[in-house]
Amino acid sequence: MSQKFDVIVIGAGPGGYVAAIRSAQLGLKTAVIEQYKGKEGKVALGGTCLNVGCIPSKALLDTSYKYHEAHDNFAVHGISTGEVKLDVPTMVGRKDQIVKNLTGGVAALIKANGVTLFEGHGKLLAGKKVEVTGMDGTVQVLDTENVIIASGSKPVEIPPAPVDQKVILDSTGALDITSVPGKLGVIGAGVIGLELGSVWARLGSEVTVLEASDTFLAAMDEQVAKEAYKVLSKQGLNILVGARLTATEVKGEQVVVSYTDTSGDKQITFDKLIIAVGRRPVTENLLGEGTGVVVGERGFIEVNEFCATAVPGIYAIGDVVRGPMLAHKASEEGVMVAERIAGHKAQVNYDIIPGVIYTHPEMASVGKTEQQLKAEGVEVNVGVFPFAASGRAMAANDTAGFVKIIANAKTDRVLGVHVIGLSAAELVQQGAIAMEFGSSAEDLGMMVFSHPSLSEAMHEAALAVNGHAIHIANKKKR
After folding, report:
1. Domain boundaries 4-155+280-341, corresponding CATH code
2. Mean pLDDT taken over the chain
3. Given the residues 77, 121, 418, 451, the one annotated as active site
């Protein structure tokens, strides 16, 4: 007789493990299935984010920035250190230890909440049954009332650049480079490409980023994207937009990259090439015959606003469904689905999901961009405050960027907050909180912000929306 559960979750990434824990907290008998193996050859929970995504990349970004600060910026503070050296294997080892600590922590949480873990591959069958193929090849079928598919995503592969994880790397392989490449190429100027490119540029690589689109960071607010291009170029990232990869040829320990732009065909040789052109949903061998679950043209499982598929009791969340491929979006969907299975009326506010690029300065946004609102015909007022006018940013020797707040011209309601600068991720979250409660720019402007703080830039930008900024000259209204 097969085991029966109230909820079975396929995948233990930020969507899956959160869904499993919340389901168990709500009194539902819950199981989670995971097949990903970590570096030590054992099943590791946490999905892409913890193992080969958000967390390890931030560890490398932090180490590389500390090196850059010590190497290039300490002198302005009157600090001299002698020759600054970096041991790359130690940096990578620290990253691996952080990953191990966090994935181990997730496993402990799963156990503490009474969730049953199955190590192996999960496959949805007809009639709400789930087949688990264990690591040793043994197969068992589980019964359940509800299934939450949280199978995640993986890097997009492109035919002109087959990944060998030696010279041509995907975002996973790029986390384990053991020495600083002399010349590094990055295909794709998105979040992953810019973050990984930044790591190695700080450590001394000559970095060139090839972006097929004619627009740099097209999804970001134009003003932020323009500033980002300027700042990142100054940092040594050679960003080529409208540059389409056509072929690669590995020659020994180097790779010759052929690309085309407006002036014709070109070639450039790199020591390493990182492919960072996006991610795609994982649905291989996930659905058996007759499940009724619909997979769309682009490989995403089709769901409604509550992450329910066309089949009652079958849900899908995270990177395998529509919406931004963000860990925090997946987690909130996991909570929502668990709550709805338990009979509660939970929902996710998809209009207020922050997004961050962890370069330095950071770029973060929530809500709509100015160009989106203009395209929709919405009249807006905009307030911008530069960190160059912030005493706290000056003290930190980190004055690049600004805070930008966009409000509805008629109602003053905040519709978007966009930040490029020190601690942008934390500042934009203030904007997200305000927007969740329907705040106006005037509301933010009337709040008391501590001085000196970076948050004052949010305060001043809110005041500037209506021409009331104190610490910069206000734009005259036409």
Report:
1. 3.50.50.60
2. 97
3. 451
